[in-house]
Amino acid sequence: MTQPAEPVSTPPKYPITDQVLEAMAISKRGCDELLPEGDWLAKLARSHATGVPLRIKLGLDPTAPDIHIGHTVVLNKMRQLQNLGHTVIFLIGDFTSMIGDPSGRNTTRPPLTREQIEANAQTYYKQASLVLDPSKTEIRYNSEWSDPLGARGMIQLAAKYTVARMMERNDFSERFKAGTPISVHEFLYPLMQGYDSVALKSDLELGGTDQKFNLLVGRALQTEYGQEPQCILTMPLLEGLDGVEKMSKSKGNYIGITDHPNDMFAKVLSISDEMMWKYFKLLSWQSEADIAKLKAEVDGGRNPKEAKVILAKEITTRFHDAAAADAAEADFNNRARGGIPDEIPEVSLTGAPLGIGQLLKQANLAPSTTEAGRLIDGNGVRVDGSVVSDKALRLGPGVYVVQVGRRKFARVTLGS
């Protein structure tokens, strides 16, 4: 994506101590870009010398009610900076959500209603607090300063940025060339996100790599308003369980931070051995030295599954607790041996003798009888521990333990 002009660093006025260099290293760990690095180093040096914490901003639009661990990549970075003593601002974009972020999209995204935004925002901060330290986090809503702008203020804000610079965005320019509609309100999104930085007087704004343009707009607007411009730090987008697509709830390749511990643990174990190291880099709180040592051990012959278990237990512990992580590991090992979990859903059905396809559908173990047949063809269905190979199987009255794949179980009581 074409960006506004790259920022130029200014030399620091305060001493660059070992503590400042350490803070710089922590800032850069796992990041995609830190712009401009010299300015951030100068800000860190000033903060260390004066004792005045820097203001670190992260904005999230409540477009869905839940956060997955892909979102926590930037939250982890916020926590690292929070641990250095800086002020973390968790900004809920209740105003910008009504516009709809066009970043990386080739069509207009329908804006959310106020009711949808409020419903989603209720859970956002609670879930983010599983990563951030709530006692050291400032929570804000951008409607606080965006609503009072009014028509006059919006016009004055829009006058501070040109259409030519807005059209430098690849998603806008490509849609324009293709004749795909671009609504005028979409230009307001990067402007309003940038105005958030002005309102909050932020020193650093974080975001995914797809947010770089918007973050730089904030820097430009701060200059227009006579403020010291923020630095920007972008974090890589985390691929989902498939190892290809960006983690997304709509793609079904996500790990939700409110997932059951057993599911969370098993999902982490399902990622590829290669992708595991990116997950370590972006999600683990272990030191880079410890991760490098572990990788060297795996390269030297240690079973990569052992490293993956370490990661799975760390993540499960973070969002639940150590006891839940231990139990999840035991559950995973039990299932791997063909065992049945201690707690499985109880389902009561009628209609015996009932076809196996209908049973799987009615027990919510398969979305349709067609999918049930596909699962049976792939040897993915067991009844009382035995693999089902006959799609015409009919079960009479009784109690059955039905398993689909490794993680889906149900104890089905089937009546006539």
From TrEMBL:
Catalytic function, reaction form: tRNA(Tyr) + L-tyrosine + ATP = L-tyrosyl-tRNA(Tyr) + AMP + diphosphate + H(+)
Motif 'KMSKS' region: positions: 246-250
Signal peptide: none
Binding site for ATP: K249
UniProt cross-references to Pfam families, sorted A to Z: S4, tRNA-synt_1b
Keyword flag ATP-binding: yes
UniProt GO cellular component terms: cytosol
Protein's cellular compartments: Cytoplasm
Keywords: Aminoacyl-tRNA synthetase, ATP-binding, Cytoplasm, Ligase, Nucleotide-binding, Protein biosynthesis, RNA-binding
Residue ranges constituting the RNA-binding S4 domain according to the UniProt record: 359-398
Enzyme class, first EC level, given as a word: ligase
Motif ('HIGH' region): 62-71
Keyword Nucleotide-binding on entry: yes
SUPFAM superfamilies: Alpha-L RNA-binding motif, Nucleotidylyl transferase
GO terms classed as biological process: tyrosyl-tRNA aminoacylation
EC identifiers of the protein: 6.1.1.1
Gene Ontology terms, MF aspect: ATP binding; RNA binding; tyrosine-tRNA ligase activity
Task of the protein: Catalyzes the attachment of tyrosine to tRNA(Tyr) in a two-step reaction: tyrosine is first activated by ATP to form Tyr-AMP and then transferred to the acceptor end of tRNA(Tyr).
NCBIfam families recorded: tyrS
Binding partners and assembly: Homodimer.
Similarity comment: Belongs to the class-I aminoacyl-tRNA synthetase family. TyrS type 2 subfamily.
Protein name, as recorded: Tyrosine--tRNA ligase
Native organism: Piscinibacter terrae
